[in-house]
Specification:
The chain is α/β, with parallel strands linked by helices. Helices cover about 25% and strands about 20% of the residues. It has a three-stranded parallel beta sheet with strand order 2-1-3, with helices on both faces. Strand 1, helix 1 and strand 2 form a beta-alpha-beta unit. The longest helix is centred in the first third of the chain and has 15 residues.
């Protein structure tokens, strides 16, 4: 049997490209919500939101610039065993 995952989209961030990231997150959320359980989270600080279950969740980071494209967010996800 296929395992169904929840999808969390991480958007926003702290950098100058914050608004672009939010727009990207909303567009992706709308597209995926047609077929998947999706939650869009607006990150406002450099940490992961609490409660992400790595057994049932796939994270799609769409943070542009600082924190999203410099490897720090990816390191946090990897350290917690979260698929992204």
């Amino acid at each position: 049997m296929k395992k169904k995952f929840n999808i969390i989209i991480l958007a926003g961030g702290i950098g100058t490209e914050r608004e672009v990231s939010i727009s990207t997150g909303k567009a992706l959320s709308n597209a995926l919500a047609k077929n998947f359980q999706v939650e869009l989270i607006d990150l406002t600080e450099e940490k992961l939101p609490k409660g992400i279950n790595p057994e049932t969740t796939v994270v799609c980071p769409v943070i542009h610039g600082t924190f999203g494209e410099d490897g720090r967010l990816q390191s946090l996800l990897e350290n917690q065993g979260i698929i992204y």
